[in-house]
Amino acid sequence: MRQFLDLALETIPRVLGGTDRDSTAESYGSCDRQYWHYRLHDMSNARLQEAGLLFALAYSIDSPENPFFRSQKLLAWIRGVWRFWLADRNSDGSCSEVYPNERSFCATAFSAAGFCETIRLTGGDAGWQQELVDAKKTIAWLAMNTNPDVANQMAASALALQAWKKLSGDDEFSAVSQRRISDCIALQNDSGVFPEYGGFDTGYQTITMSVLACLLKWLPKNSLEAVDVLSALKKAEQAVNRVVDDKGGIDESACSRNTDYLYPHAFAALKSSVLQRIETGLSGRSVLRPTWMDDRYCIALAADYLYAFRELAHVDDDIPAHSTAPV
Q1: Tens of pLDDT along 243-266?
Q2: pTM score
Q3: How far is CA 324 from CA 126, 163, 164, 179, in A?
Q4: Cβ atoms of 240 and 205 closer than 8 Å
Q5: Mean pLDDT throughout 42-63?
């Protein structure tokens, strides 16, 4: 269990170094150092703003080994990250990842989900009422757009829609939120695989599973949607269980995206034996860890390690009641 916390905490200083923490700068809160510092890019990559979620996870974990727990300085940076994200979106609420005005479904879904999860994790420690109002434009864009070829992106959009609805108390997108959850689950085949561009990719399968494990926390217990999501998670776990060896290794050549990593969060939530295999691989330095990933991918993997730690430590995950009138 400690490995997941320690390895994620090792990654955070690196991610903080990629974040503009000068509150007087126009780019304050941007997590794309290639944009705000080196000026090599004309735009800030919205996916890098998920660093705000990583920081929020660190902020929320009460452990003697965690120097970031309830850090007010970190909380200020978290707010800066998400305020930059809100200000930097396209006029229709969508986000860009690679080029200006891209309107990336992937970047919009995952960053919006990270924004909502941040509010869950920081709870009443930061007033997010105005930010929730401002985020509605992004939620509306997600409600009108899909990418059914990629299950992990569909899952992230379902999480964002459901979480924003719960936080804001606004039911305008309630029907599309339910439909997005069912559409995502319908992508799973009889073998438990969530397709990644038409094939099975173990790494992206575990990303989809992690998002669905987060989604469960936003659904009423024993609701039809919660039962369906949990059932899909268990089938997805069986698909991964069949291909992970006793040291957490996978045959990346057999993966549709050639990934060589595993996200542990869902396995911790399901109490799966796969988690022990991942831990064995981490101890033997044969499993990819966040610090070995590039700047884009280390953020999400480190965040998932903290999610896994929270599951194993049985951290209270109550959803904060919405503190603003319907928006």
Answers
A1: 999 999 999 888 999 999 999 999
A2: 0.95
A3: 13, 14, 12, 25
A4: yes
A5: 97
